[in-house]
Amino acid sequence: MNNCLSLYIYGNKIANEGYTPLVVVGEPRNIPDGVVGGLESLPYYFTLSIEATHTFFTLVRSDVSSIGAARGGRLKIAIALPKGTALAGGISPLTVLKAINAYYDENYLSNGLMGRQFTEVRENPEAFAALQAQYPIVPVLTPHRVMTGQSDAMVIASEEELAQLMCDAQYPEFVNYRNIILSTSAGASALPRLSVTIPRPRVYALFMQQTKIQDIIDNGQTEIILNVAARQAYEEAYTVKFSLQDARAGRVPNVVVNDMEETIVCSFPPRPKQKACRLIVSTANEAADSAPCPPLTSFYLAERQDATGRNRRPFSPDGTLVLTGMEALWPNPVVGCTDPDWAVSVSQPAMGADGVTEYRAVARRIPVRRYRLQLTGSPNIVGKVRPIDFYILTDATRDLRRPFDSNYIATLRGDEALLNDFQIRTSRNDVKFSLNKELSGKPNPDGTIACCIEVSAIITLGPTTIPNPGRQIDQQQQPRQHPANGGTGQRISIPDWAKYLIGAGGTLLIVMVILAAIFLPGMCSGEGGTQTSKDDAKAEQRDSTQEDDSTPTDRDKAKINTAELFCDSLKGLDFCFEDFLPEVEGFIQSLDQEKDNAEVFQTLQQQYEVMKAIADELAKAHSSNVTKDNLKNDIPATLQTYLNEGDGLTDEQSNILHTLINEKPKGYKDTYLVNYYRDPMDSFRDIQAIVQKKPVQEKNETPASKKKESKGQSEKKDNKQDKRSDKNPFN
């Protein structure tokens, strides 16, 4: 950008040669010829024109004649300011034009017949350049409104007011015209007159959330008051007050002032509602003497529908809490305690005198028993098992399991802690163990109760023995043939009942050979019994067969045992959908609907149908033609059905599936969906690992062998202390 304005002087210096440039300092350009009719009687007047790149101010004289001519001529002195500039020091363009006009009049004009007359002295551009250089320009933050009309208009004002107008001539009223004539008198001109305020008031368009609210006039002390409305039920309206000067200086957050466009853009965020709460806790009489109440920071408020445990808002040490946003709309929040050994009962909340919602709670310590696992047996065998492989089954009908953790501790709370009878089981089908009742049931120094288990053997599993729920295939197993090679794609598995049948058939064959060796020679020689004795033998054989059919055989018992093993495996987390479910399906298809009607077969059928449906939906969602958006929408809609049924799932499996459907890791959008595309979910352990996996953005992911163990199902808290018992459940 030039640091000086441009100067143009035009006139008809030589008679009959027309309107020619006399002095040009800056970019060459043509100044339009002509004068405004009706203003010839004025010694001079000014014109204003705003183009895309410059603003032009012109002084027009009508009292000048050509050299030696008697008729009137004209002289035009114009200056041009680039867009976004103004004269330094607040000097008006009118002052500059009058100074240049005075210099030209003194050096290049003389008295003539019609007033002033051009002389033959040649104009010196360097002298005018030196004069023009005395008026530098500076950048300014002001709008630049280009005049796009085809007609002219006039502004009549005093010369002092015209000087002020030229300092800031960006009036929006000028846009619809071609030129604005600035004069102290209208003379005989018939041009329309414009009434404008001098100096120009700066009017800012106020926008709130991209919507224009009103126009704000800058008077040097302008204050703006805005009402920010609430757009949601969990928001509240509020008022903002600030000055335009502070906003222009950047001292008002969420407000941007643009002096070039003369706009004020506000983007105040919504203010969430707030609800103040206070907790008053007292302890039950029976708990006050045994243990102190937990600190107030152990208590929290949670939405009643939130069962994940993540949406908790703890109280402060002084028992206060402020709920904000959607939390303030919780109709009946739940008061809970992070200490699982304590239960809380709360009366209806009431409004305090200071407007704070008060919750009066009674904390009661619930019965708790902790059992410490002790594994005994051969070191080679004990070293192959883990404490998490064992659990306490408190309710077989509901399959309530309390597993031992990595510290060999299993905790029973509430009514479960009062039980006198429960079972110790293992989640592994290849472990044989027994409970040592002599060492179990005794209190340990740390307050836990001993639970001594002697591991006697670990059975090597294979397809011909106990169903294997894992992914890995024993090296001694025959590999599955690919369907393209003529195979079925499934591993051949012989259930236990078939083995018993084969063994029984071999034994029967040996007995028949021995009988034939004894009786066949006599029969061939005629020394055997009569026809009647043969009939009696056949009848006796039929009676024996009928008796065998009416009593459970070894084959029936083997099939029931196999079904129970399948059921136990389907209650775990490690069985592979792809490998294990076909084995279960083959066993179910081998059953006889008329004879095999035990309850365990029906249970197995129900478990298989639910697991097969879940596996099919996961496999379908993992196909290449499903996008992440479809996966996000389809998995909850489909799998929620099986989760609600719940008959074929354990609590632990339901919790894992619930996490996949409803929860996402905090801070990472749909992380489990991204991980799912990398690792298919072929077991409940896979699902658990994927929803717990670190984000894919991290380079070092946790190896599969170090995935966290499932915390198991959520434990119930019970306040009933009147059932406390000191009886040994192992006796």
Fraction of residues in β-strands = 25-35%
Number of helices: 15
The rounded distance between the terminal residues' Cα atoms is 100 Å
Indicate the low-confidence ranges by residue numbers.
Answer: 462-468, 470-511, 513-535, 537-550, 696-726
Q: Assign an overall shape.
A: elongated
How are the secondary structure elements laid out?
Elements: E1 6-11, E2 20-25, E3 44-50, E4 54-65, E5 72-82, E6 85-87, H1 93-108, E7 109-112, E8 115-118, H2 125-132, E9 137-139, E10 152-156, H3 159-167, E11 179-183, E12 202-208, E13 211-218, E14 223-228, E15 235-236, E16 238-243, H4 244-248, E17 255-258, E18 263-266, E19 271-272, E20 274-283, H5 285-288, E21 299-302, E22 312-314, E23 320-324, E24 334-337, E25 342-346, E26 350-351, E27 357-365, E28 368-377, H6 379-382, E29 390-395, E30 400-403, E31 409-413, E32 423-426, E33 431-435, E34 449-458, H7 496-525, H8 531-550, H9 554-570, H10 577-589, H11 599-621, H12 628-645, H13 651-662, H14 671-678, H15 684-692
Parallel strand pairs: 4-8, 10-11, 12-18, 20-27, 28-34
Antiparallel strand pairs: 1-2, 1-5, 3-4, 3-11, 4-5, 6-9, 7-8, 12-13, 14-16, 15-19, 17-18, 20-23, 21-22, 21-24, 25-27, 26-27, 28-31, 29-30, 29-32, 33-34
Helix pairs in contact: 7-9, 9-11, 10-11, 11-12, 12-13, 13-15
What does this structure look like?
- The protein has 731 residues and is an alpha+beta fold.
- 27% of the residues lie in helices and 26% in strands.
- It is built from 15 helices and 34 strands.
- Strands 1, 2, 3, 4, 5, 7, 8, 10 and 11 form a 9-stranded mixed β-sheet that branches. Strands 20, 23, 25, 26 and 27 form a 5-stranded mixed β-sheet that branches.
- Helix 7 packs antiparallel against helix 9.
- The protein is elongated and about 145 Å long.
- The relative contact order is 0.06.
- The model is unreliable at 462-468, 470-511, 513-535, 537-550 and 696-726 (pLDDT under 50).
